Amino acid sequence: MARPKVGLICGSRSDLAVLAKAEKQLKNFGIDYELTVASAHRTPKKVTAYARAAEQKYDLIIAAAGLAAALPGVVAAHTALPVIGVPIHSPGLSGHDALFSIVQMPPGVPVASVAIDGGRNAAILAAQILALKYPELRAKLKRLKKEMTKGR
Amino acid sequence: MARPKVGLICGSRSDLAVLAKAEKQLKNFGIDYELTVASAHRTPKKVTAYARAAEQKYDLIIAAAGLAAALPGVVAAHTALPVIGVPIHSPGLSGHDALFSIVQMPPGVPVASVAIDGGRNAAILAAQILALKYPELRAKLKRLKKEMTKGR
Amino acid sequence: MARPKVGLICGSRSDLAVLAKAEKQLKNFGIDYELTVASAHRTPKKVTAYARAAEQKYDLIIAAAGLAAALPGVVAAHTALPVIGVPIHSPGLSGHDALFSIVQMPPGVPVASVAIDGGRNAAILAAQILALKYPELRAKLKRLKKEMTKGR
Amino acid sequence: MARPKVGLICGSRSDLAVLAKAEKQLKNFGIDYELTVASAHRTPKKVTAYARAAEQKYDLIIAAAGLAAALPGVVAAHTALPVIGVPIHSPGLSGHDALFSIVQMPPGVPVASVAIDGGRNAAILAAQILALKYPELRAKLKRLKKEMTKGR
Amino acid sequence: MARPKVGLICGSRSDLAVLAKAEKQLKNFGIDYELTVASAHRTPKKVTAYARAAEQKYDLIIAAAGLAAALPGVVAAHTALPVIGVPIHSPGLSGHDALFSIVQMPPGVPVASVAIDGGRNAAILAAQILALKYPELRAKLKRLKKEMTKGR
Amino acid sequence: MARPKVGLICGSRSDLAVLAKAEKQLKNFGIDYELTVASAHRTPKKVTAYARAAEQKYDLIIAAAGLAAALPGVVAAHTALPVIGVPIHSPGLSGHDALFSIVQMPPGVPVASVAIDGGRNAAILAAQILALKYPELRAKLKRLKKEMTKGR
Amino acid sequence: MARPKVGLICGSRSDLAVLAKAEKQLKNFGIDYELTVASAHRTPKKVTAYARAAEQKYDLIIAAAGLAAALPGVVAAHTALPVIGVPIHSPGLSGHDALFSIVQMPPGVPVASVAIDGGRNAAILAAQILALKYPELRAKLKRLKKEMTKGR
Amino acid sequence: MARPKVGLICGSRSDLAVLAKAEKQLKNFGIDYELTVASAHRTPKKVTAYARAAEQKYDLIIAAAGLAAALPGVVAAHTALPVIGVPIHSPGLSGHDALFSIVQMPPGVPVASVAIDGGRNAAILAAQILALKYPELRAKLKRLKKEMTKGR
After folding, report:
1. Sign of the C-alpha dihedral, residues B139, B141, B142, B144?
2. E73 touches chain A (CB under 8 A)
3. C-alpha to C-alpha distance for C149 and A64, rounded to whole angstroms
4. CA of A2, closest CA in chain B: separation in Å?
């Protein structure tokens, strides 16, 4: 049977820490993912190729980026898959730059932005979306919701 | 055969203009929706009941709110469905308040934020998500992408 | 004779440090309080139950939260008690997010916001409010005002 | 029997429009109020005299101000009554200045800030506070909460 | 003899007003230009093709965009020509979004940002750059500097 | 012969580090000063008395404050002396709060704001102002300007 | 007998409206002034000459500017006279740009910033400063303070 | 044969770290540069002389500055060479001040702003501009673009 698959992408190795929180949560859900480092600005052909091939390989994409964070929007430009954007905090402008660059997409090409450094929530949102196609994920999401009500 | 269904919700009648852009785009895609006005702050029981029943009725939810825009997050708190949040611009603070209130969700409960007043993009993101379950939407999304390449 | 009682609530154990400043000041005033950890987003039923039962137990509520700080507003939605909100600083956006999420409440459902990380002031404001019902607090508040004029 | 009384104060005649929303709501609740125009910067003696005499006359104070909105804090400096601050929007800086000037009070002297231009919420918060001393207000607040659940 | 040539590009017809100020100034300098409407998000292939062919046709590029203004950066990703970015003001976030999206480029791929709605300055900066290759422009720039000292 | 005299005032002992930079520079200029710690919010009578007596004792006042930095404005409200305000940085809101609270004074009561944590510049501005009355300071200011041109 | 004299300068004819408020107030005080339009960026030699000659002609300078408002700082760089800066509001960035450009001067060269569009306060601050040298102004300032206590 | 030459200038020795990134990249490209420390505010004559002589010595200028970062604009005021501005981060206001002071230049006198602390990108932009006159740089820029596609 088909299994959900997520494409994880970030623009630079220094962004991997934020995606690590997404990876951990995806593993928890038993969702396969593939991690790619490619930059909308430094390796644009790789990003374009990645985004155009994405539909063959993934159900959705999580893209993390900082500064003038064009990556999620550029990926979204080339695919009809849902793209979740994770803005990454940096010292100058405290993350305002990445947040605004990701969330303020023009009409026609949405990106689903989560919180600054919100890698874990990107993975949970991915599972919520994937649950439409893979109903077994719904139970896992409910278990997560239940777990959140304990331990506190 | 099952048809996709979206729950559209906003906190106040004055927010309907922003959702109208979502409605128009959903109609374009042939996606059914149901429109509800309920406020996380003024009619919280209605919102809670709405969110708890949502899974029976909808595939996903689009929630628009301004100011201390708690609605999308509160809906997300009560359901495992994907929730798309639309921050609404208001004069004081120019929409910073609604954007931050919607996008900065804590770990565990994501909201997928689109741009300020981004009703249309909320609907397109909804279609991208629904396409996982209703593959006929993918063709419509591709047609939209193609149309965007014309007329400009 | 009746004694004043304050409900202290925050969304996460990591927020307790900010509330500790409120606790210390409440103890100073001899005001009873009860501390609860519950999240508007992760444990919404607990928050709703808490807020609905609050009138039986408390005279007012102090709610602290960071990020998309919905907790004070959601508590205020379910009770007619005064709710004091304490925005908590976090690195991304330096507390702008929590402040705007708490203070920009829509017409009909106020929250009384104090400063970012202003746990102590929340407790003093609580005493000022409670002094309407428990006049013995007025003397304590005046003593505090007098003490502030010394030692500096 | 004693009746609740609120002191309404703003720094300039041009701020009266924001307080008018408070007045309307206070009248609705049947709460007496007295309106004063005095500026912490232009008529500081009047403000000091007002604040020092406030305890004899009022149960609490609502103070509205724009720009470097010192009025609520200066009133709070001279009284142990609860002080509700209403930041007023102005074109330069879109209300950020008044909000920060009112809400960021130093430890020891709180002001309860409501939203920018939030005159109506200031009055509702006042009623919630006064209800501790004048229990008949609680019923009115509940009626307001109930009314908010209708008409929408 | 070779003549300078500038590529002018913006993401949407609604951005043309800002570029009109650049066009007028370029005409003043006698610099040829070609105007293209293409969006990094809606017509990404057109933008990529444009940027890759740019070196054959232009000496430099002026790219104007609003919101999550990815266009200048995406063009810069595909060419070694200098790219001047013009952030465009929009009501939500007052242009902070476009400015941050354009100026905060990651190391390796610069964009030369001018002021919000700074179409005219983009053209003057273009002339200053082109004067390195087409020295006759230097005299025109000096004449402009001289004219600016008059009439005021 | 009369000597210039500056009143230095800040709201809290924790603000003394910023004023130390002013003290050092005033000593350098040979300007007498007197240091006072008094808070517009915690010790308002002391501030009022200080400001009303200031004209007898000082030629001008330098007032430093953080957060809802009312001190400079409140001093200015009670005296016709020039008041220089020094906003102090604090973690939440990175000094935006103190800056806006000090600089956005309403018409009628100015404060001369210098940069965040700008204690040294406050002292130099004081000397520039005092030089109108004590011309010997002009030579010292020119020497400072000359020194700045060296060593770099 | 010597009379006080103020140099008023702004960067562009479109800034004259803000300075008109200063002119009116200076006339009220009977303070002579001279109005100059010169831009730190477009007519830098004129500004430098102006600033260097200022000490011969003026007691102090009021400089108004918008956007990257370098004028007050550049004037201050060339003179030891006190320089009052007036930030001017513009649509993009709502005046944050002019305020930060004027107030955040580096150590060694202060500018006394007043509020955004604060032309009138610039004139009152000028009178407060000039009163050190021209004591007859003190009485006028006190009269102004007294007038402010009436009519409200 | 002529060689490209860049003028590097910053306002203070503490800014040299940001320019070091530019120097390293310029060396990489084999572009000669000359480093000057001069402040628009503290050593304005040196800056003016520098800017006026620049055309004899340099092809373009890179100017880095923090706070009220007037240096790039003041240099641009005195030369028709392209001026690249590098805003420098400082704790208060997190770099918003330097960015706005550099990028928001008025019509007539552009500065090409790069990212906060973007020293390396300033050098790459310089090379892109210089390549118009020194075509051998184009190959080096293409090599850099190619290198960026590896190692990641």
Report:
1. positive
2. yes
3. 52
4. 12
Asked whether the beta carbons of residue A109 and residue B103 sit closer than 8 angstroms, the reply is no
CB atoms within 10 A of CB E119: 27
Taking only the tens place, the pLDDT of each residue in A17-67 is 999 999 999 999 999 999 999 999 999 999 999 999 999 999 999 999 999
Q: Give the count of alpha carbons within 13 A of F104, CB side only.
A: 34
> Which among H89, H96, H152 has the least Cβ separation from residue A43?
H152
**Could you give phi then psi for residue D82, rounded to 5 degrees?**
-65, 135
Local structure of residue E81 (DSSP, 8 states) = S
Alpha helices in G8-130 (DSSP H): 16-29, 44-57, 71-77, 96-103, 119-130
Q: Do C68 and B100 touch (CB under 8 A)?
A: yes
CA angle A61, A65, A69 (to 5 degrees): 110
pTM recorded for the entire structure:
0.97
Domain spanning A5-149, CATH class: alpha beta
Three-class DSSP category at A83: strand
Does D87 contact chain F (CB < 8 Å)? no
How far lies B88's CA from each of B65, C126, D99, E88, in Å?
A: 6, 33, 20, 20
Among G43, G46, G47, G101, the residue to mutate for chain E (most E Cβ within 10 A): G43
Number of H helices, E strands in chain D: 6, 5
Question: Apex CA H71: angle with CA H65 and CA H76, to 5°?
Answer: 130
Residue at token pair 């304990």: A150
CB E112 within 8 A of CB H112: yes
The three-state secondary structure class of E66 is strand
Cβ pair F73:D70 closer than 8 A = yes
CB contact under 8 A, G107 and F113: no
ipTM above 0.95, yes or no: yes
Give the C-alpha separation, A106 to D32, whole Å: 50
Nearest Cβ partner for B92 among D116, D149, D152: D116
Residue type, E132: L
Is D120's Cβ below 8 Å from some Cβ in C?
yes
Check CB contact of A148 with chain C, cutoff 8 Å: yes
What does the pLDDT look like over G72-100, one tens digit per residue? 999 999 999 999 999 999 988 989 999 99
Contact assessment for residue B4 and residue B130, using Cβ atoms and an 8 Å cutoff: yes
How distant is the Cα of D135 from the closest Cα of chain B, in angstroms?
22
Partner-chain residue, chosen from E13, E45, E93, that has the shortest CB–CB distance to B152: E13
What are the two backbone dihedrals, phi and then psi, of residue E81, each rounded to the nearest 5 degrees?
Answer: -70, 155
C60-66, strands of its sheet edge to edge: C32-37, C5-10, C60-66, C83-88, C112-113, D112-113, D83-88, D60-66, D5-10, D32-37
Binary contact (B70, C73; C-beta < 8 A): yes
Q: Please say whether the beta carbons of F138 and F131 come within 8 A.
A: yes
CA atoms of F70 and F11, how far apart (whole Å): 9
Give the per-residue pLDDT at H152.
46
State yes or no: pLDDT of G152 exceeds 50: no
Tokens 């000041």 locate to: C25
Helix (H/G/I), strand (E/B), else coil: F151:
coil
Residues on chain F touching D111 (C-beta within 8 angstroms): 68
Residue F148 contacts H where some CB pair is shorter than 8 Å: yes
Q: Higher model confidence: residue G150 or residue H89? A: H89
Residue D92 is given by DSSP the state G
Q: Do C118 and D107 touch (CB under 8 A)?
A: yes
Two structure tokens written together for D110: 């709180």
Q: Which long-range contacts (CB under 8 A, 24 or more apart) does C12-20 make?
A: C12/A152, C12/B106, C12/C37, C12/C39, C12/C66, C13/A152, C13/C37, C15/C64, C15/C65, C15/C66, C15/C88, C18/C64, C18/C86, C18/C88, C18/C117, C18/C119, C19/C62, C19/C64, C19/C86, C19/C119, C20/C119
Alpha helices in F62-135 (DSSP H): 71-77, 96-103, 119-130
